[in-house]
C-alpha cells in the first residue's frame, strides 16, 4: 500500500482494540477469542461491469464494494467483524489522481464499516493501466448461533423476503443497507430454516436455494413486494414492476424460509425494523411455479454477473 | 462463481473437516476453535504488472498469487489455514477459454495449498474486457506463539536472512517456496525479535523494518548470500550479483533479527532445512550503512510495485 494512503488511513480509521496489529506490518492480526468459527466471503467489483467510474462518485463505489460483502455475511447470519480491501487503480482515473481515487473509495467504505462495527484491517493497493477493480474480503462469526444456509428448507415452510424488490439499477444497488442485523437475528433466534441474499435476481437466486434444499416453490406473485424503483423503471422499460422484482439483480435483500408460525410472526412484526413479506410456499418436487405445481412454471431468469 | 468452475473445484479440492461450509453457499464457514487470533493478509497481482499472461503458464501465475500471500503469513509467524480467491478474468484470454484459464489458475494453486495444509475455502469469479487480475486473501493463526512483527528489533541484534537473494525475475518470483515453516518455527521458538518478508528488495524492505524498530543497520556486504540467478542476471545487466541481491524485488525470503547467540545457532543449523545467513548488525540511529555508521550510506532502493 502506498505510504500516503497508509498515513491517511491510519489517521482516519478509528482504533479498535480487537485489531492487535494493523496497517504497516505484513498482515493484520485480530483478536478472535471467544469465537469458535470464521465466516469468510469475498466479492470483487469492476469498472464497466458493476459500475461506471466516469459517472459515479467513487465514494458510492467504495461503499458498494463493502456492502455486497456484508450482505453475504448477513446471508449466513454472521456478525460482521472485519474486512480487507484490495484496490486495482487506474493510473489515469477520469477525475483527479490515483491517490485521490483511493482515498474517496475508502471514504465511502468507512462510514458503512463503522455502522456495522466492522474493522478495516488492511489491504493491498495497486495501480495499473487497466480499469478500476475492488476486491473485498469480509470476516465474521456465527458463534453459538447456527449459520444460515441454503439447504435447510422443509416442505410446508413459507418463503419470505425482506424489504422490496426490483429496480436497483436506479440507485439502490449502490445505496442499499446490507441486512446484517436482520440475518443475525434470524440466526440467533433460530427463525429461518434456509436463507441467502438476492444478488442475481429473485427467481435465479430462489432456484439456487431450491436446488440446495431439494424442493420446489409455489410463488404468490401478487404478494411479491415491488419497490418504487421497480415501478419507476417499468415506466420506461415496458416491463411490469413485478417482472422487475422477479428478475432484476442486486436487491441485496434476504430470501429465506421459515415455518408457517414463525413466518406469520415475522410478517406481522418485521425483523430488526425491516418489513418481511411471505411470497410463497415450499413443496416437494422441483421448479418454481405460479399458483400451484403443474401450473405456470417460472424460469430462473435473472441478472447473471459476467 | 460459474457453475462449471464450482463443479470442477468441488471434485478437485480435497475435503477438509475444518471447512464446515464451503463452495456453493453465500460464504465459507471454518472451524476456528482453539484459536485465539486471526491473521489476515491480502495481495493482488495483475497482468502486465506482475506477470505477462501471453508468456507464462497460468498455473505458475495461480501458484504465485497464493505463494505471495503465504509469504506474508510466514512473515508473521502464522500457521496457514485457508484462503479465498477472487479472479478477474479476460473474456478473450490469449490461449484457450476463460473457463480454461480459471481452471489452470486453480491447478497452479491447489498443489501449493495442499503442501501447506491450506484450505481453498471459496472465491469469486468475474470476467470482463480488461486484463487478468487475481486477488487472494489468506488467513492463519499464531495461537500461543507471539506474532513476528517489524518493530521488535533491539540494538546489538544481528540481521539475518533465509536462502539467497537476487535475480528472481529469471523465474523464482513464480516458483519460490514461501517460508511458512521457517516463520512458524521463528515464532514458536521465540527466535526472532523482528521479521518481515522481502518482497520489494532487501534495502527497501530493511528500511521499513528499521523504521518500525527505530534503529539503524550496518550491513556486512560480502556476507550477503547472492543467488545463482543474481549471478546469471549480472552477466547481462552490467550490475554485480550483490547489487541484484540488494535491490531486486520478489525474493520472498525472510528478513529477521535475533540476539547474537540465537543468530549463531541459526547460522550453524539453518531453520526448518533452510540456510540462514547473518548479514549485519542493528544499532541505534537511522539509515542503512556499509561497514560502520557514518561510512558509506546505502539508499533504500528496490522494486516498488506500482
From TrEMBL, chains A, B:
Keywords: ATP-binding, Kinase, Magnesium, Metal-binding, Nucleotide-binding, Thiamine biosynthesis, Transferase
Residues covered by the PurM-like N-terminal domain: 24-141
Binding site for ATP: 106, 123-124, 150, 199
Reaction(s) the record says it catalyses: thiamine phosphate + ATP = thiamine diphosphate + ADP
Keyword Transmembrane helix annotated: no
Annotated pathway: Cofactor biosynthesis; thiamine diphosphate biosynthesis; thiamine diphosphate from thiamine phosphate: step 1/1
Residues reported in the UniProt entry to bind Mg(2+) 1: 42-43, 124
Annotated binding of substrate, by residue: 50, 250, 303
Molecular function terms, GO-annotated: ATP binding; magnesium ion binding; thiamine-phosphate kinase activity
Residues annotated as binding Mg(2+) 3: 26, 72, 197
InterPro entries: PurM-like_C_dom (IPR010918), PurM-like_C_sf (IPR036676), PurM-like_N (IPR016188), PurM-like_N_sf (IPR036921), ThiL-like (IPR006283)
Binding residue positions for Mg(2+) 5: 200
Enzyme Commission number(s): 2.7.4.16
Residues that, per the record, bind Mg(2+) 4: 26, 41, 72
Residue sites binding Mg(2+) 2 per the record: 43, 72
GO biological process, one term: thiamine biosynthetic process
Pfam families per UniProt: AIRS, AIRS_C
Gene3D superfamilies the record matches: PurM-like C-terminal domain, PurM-like, N-terminal domain
PurM-like C-terminal domain sequence ranges: 168-285
Xref: CDD domains: ThiL (cd02194)
Additional comment: Reaction mechanism of ThiL seems to utilize a direct, inline transfer of the gamma-phosphate of ATP to TMP rather than a phosphorylated enzyme intermediate.
Purpose: Catalyzes the ATP-dependent phosphorylation of thiamine-monophosphate (TMP) to form thiamine-pyrophosphate (TPP), the active form of vitamin B1.
Family membership: Belongs to the thiamine-monophosphate kinase family.
Descriptive protein name: Thiamine-monophosphate kinase
Organism listed in the record: Blastopirellula retiformator
Amino acid at each position: 500500500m502506498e505510504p500516503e494512503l497508509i498515513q491517511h488511513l491510519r489517521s482516519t480509521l478509528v482504533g479498535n482494540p480487537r485489531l492487535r496489529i494493523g496497517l504497516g506490518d505484513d498482515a493484520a492480526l485480530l483478536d478472535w477469542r471467544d469465537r469458535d468459527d470464521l465466516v469468510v466471503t469475498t466479492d470483487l467489483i469492476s469498472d464497466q461491469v458493476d459500475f461506471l467510474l466516469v459517472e459515479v462518485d467513487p465514494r458510492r463505489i467504495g461503499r458498494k464494494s463493502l456492502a455486497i460483502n456484508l450482505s453475504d455475511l448477513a446471508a449466513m447470519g454472521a456478525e460482521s467483524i472485519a474486512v480487507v480491501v484490495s484496490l486495482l487503480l487506474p493510473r489515469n482515473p477520469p477525475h483527479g489522481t490515483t491517490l485521490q481515487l483511493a482515498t474517496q473509495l475508502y471514504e465511502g467504505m468507512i462510514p458503512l464499516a463503522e455502522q456495522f462495527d466492522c474493522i478495516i484491517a488492511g489491504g493491498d493497493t495497486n495501480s495499473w493501466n487497466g480499469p478500476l477493480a475492488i476486491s473485498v474480503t469480509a470476516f465474521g462469526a456465527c458463534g453459538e448461533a447456527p449459520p444460515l444456509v441454503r439447504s435447510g428448507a422443509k416442505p410446508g415452510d413459507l418463503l419470505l423476503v425482506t424489504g422490496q424488490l426490483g429496480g436497483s439499477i436506479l440507485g439502490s444497488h449502490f445505496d442499499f443497507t446490507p441486512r446484517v442485523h436482520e440475518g443475525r437475528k434470524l440466526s440467533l433466534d433460530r427463525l429461518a430454516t434456509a436463507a441467502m441474499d438476492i444478488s442475481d435476481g429473485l427467481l435465479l437466486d430462489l432456484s439456487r436455494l431450491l436446488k440446495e434444499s431439494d424442493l420446489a416453490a409455489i410463488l404468490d406473485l401478487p404478494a411479491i413486494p415491488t419497490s418504487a424503483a421497480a415501478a419507476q423503471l417499468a415506466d420506461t422499460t415496458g416491463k411490469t414492476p413485478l417482472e422487475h422484482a422477479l428478475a432484476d439483480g442486486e436487491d441485496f435483500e434476504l430470501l429465506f424460509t421459515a415455518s408457517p408460525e414463525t413466518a406469520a410472526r415475522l410478517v406481522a412484526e418485521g425483523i430488526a425494523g425491516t418489513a418481511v413479506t411471505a411470497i410463497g410456499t415450499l413443496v416437494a418436487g422441483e421448479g418454481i411455479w405460479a399458483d400451484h405445481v403443474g401450473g405456470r412454471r417460472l424460469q430462473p431468469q435473472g441478472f447473471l454477473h459476467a
